[in-house]
Amino acid sequence: MGFTPLFSVAACGVHDAPTTPAELHVYAFAESIPQEVLEGFHQHTGVSVVLTTYASNEELVAGLRAAPAAYDLVMPSDYAVDELVSAGALLPLDLASIPNYNNVAPAFLSPWFDAGGVSQPGRGRARNEKYSLPWLWGTTGIIFDSTVPGPAPARWADLWSPAFAGRLVLPDDAREMLGIGLLALGYPTNDPDPAHIHAAAEHLRPLVQGAVALDANTPETMLVAGPIHAATASAGVVYSGNAVLARRGNPALVYVLPQDGPGIWFDNLAIPAAAPHPEAAHQLIDWLLSEDSGAAVVTSLPYATPNEAAVRALKARDPARWSEYALDPVANPSMDTVAGAIPVKNVGAAAQAVYESEWAVIVGARGAK
After folding, report:
1. For residue 171, which of 117, 175, 216, 247 is within the disulfide window of CB 3.0 to 4.6 Å?
2. 166 in a domain, yes or no?
3. Which residues have a Cβ under 8 Å from the Cβ of 22 and sit 6 or more positions away?
């Protein structure tokens, strides 16, 4: 994986003069931006937002590689930001044109994958460049039905318990799942060693073969209350937002952060280096980071927000919804809770290709069973 470092924005002629476009094209994770927020931007600016979605960072990177000038705004997760910046595929942000940058909690402004900005030296130390701003964040853990007989899972290795055989829903995500396989074998989550990645793939194979489904977007639809049948799961690997939704439909579900290191992820707003309308994209980022947009996220989506001004605004406007969010340790985990969480990191093009090819073999075998 990885881009050829030959992005020539000037040659593309995409930044010659600022224009107000009729529409902006956004490439983002499904169910990550409330429609009312995009409609509000259209009403405020007259610019329509065309939203195209993807299910994984690998899909995003491939789509941007194939059509680098197709999108004005993208939503890469942490390690994908690192990869895209290294490839010259993202535009440094003009923070002066994003005043709502100040709404973001300071703890989220200098992450490991993009530490630049107004207060911290980053990757481009001479210019203190900043390529992304945080949008949503959450964890990856294990969810299980407490009414189903069997021990409660405490570590990733517990997924291989006979109690969960044939009853799991798993994300179709090479890095998340192979990282779990590596941890279960005692290797680091971001191990670049091809032999270790292959061993993790072999360890994962029976788990994936017997899974009810591979679904990173809507696993909650398979974790329903009631009798277990072929289309339902009693446990799974899910993102925290999906866990919130699943628990609303089945209160017997319990979400666990494994003791050996839950996942932690940050989805971010960034502008492709060859974006056709970077000025309008900056305006959209500023809109998304406003108090109103952030409050709409907390109201409409089951994820944690780094927008501290929006949380304060929601507390004043809708104390009941604020309380529901603030007191939910799944939707809004404390920093202490995630102290041992492990992010997926950029392992380089060669190792990333191994992860993807090993996962493709596992998934392919599942399809052929």
Report:
1. 216
2. yes
3. 47, 48
